[in-house]
């Protein structure tokens, strides 16, 4: 199902993507700085390179360690294993993918979330990059997702293969749910994905963006751009690997958390998927939380004292609690 753009279509989308990337880099600089200033100082992190299926190309990723646990990673993921963990067993791992509209290079913008989750749960968090469209349309990003999870499966000395979670924001949430459904069967024998967390995800690329209503109409043209860049073959947009809302209920992991925003046109898609899973009769725990008074990507650069700040605290605390339950992590007081 590899997809390609027409020549002139690609030039148009490429130009728009380049301009949008430059604008986001300028307009979001303060938000990124605010979030990074809040990263807990006792959470270590380091950037690594994960081998991809393409020779000579790596996938960048950031590893966040809880204060109680630290590995000394070798210089290359292919180097000999580091010394054994001082812990009696490896920690669980949450793999996260950032938001991007499938086109924006925003690795690192989830640093606050990743560090908070590592600190509050005791799990290692792997924040992984992926290829962007229109240069690399579907299935390039999902291939990088699969390669990342397969690399996790080769690291039993670092991560508990039986306690793996996937998570993402916006387009990253789309990829996380695709990993937990369309890719899960291929990964069943090597890792156990217990939970999928999708924060304001795009779940139905087949639906007309104009039908997705919210207080921010600019999102309509943006959604068209994202759809056209990522999945130029319109007929492919109903495939579960592209639009997770079409995935059969029995493909989902034991826990699915869908966090949507009241002011986000993508919210109804999360609600519809939650209802689909709830009425399926399958033993899937569905947590569907609608965050009131906030728009899409509300948590990025939230300022103290605002509704976005309050909702971010609610959302991150909820995710941490769900991960602890799914990974069977309990504090001394629990």
UniProtKB/TrEMBL annotation:
Signal peptide bounds: 1-29
Keyword Hydrolase annotated: yes
Ranges where the Alpha/beta hydrolase fold-3 domain occurs: 94-298
Pfam family, one: Abhydrolase_3
InterPro entries, A to Z: AB_hydrolase_3, AB_hydrolase_fold, GDXG_lipolytic_enzyme
Residue spans crossing the bilayer: none
Alphabetical keyword list: Hydrolase, Signal
GO molecular function, one term: hydrolase activity
Protein name from the UniProt record: Alpha/beta hydrolase fold-3 domain-containing protein
Originating organism: Xylaria hypoxylon
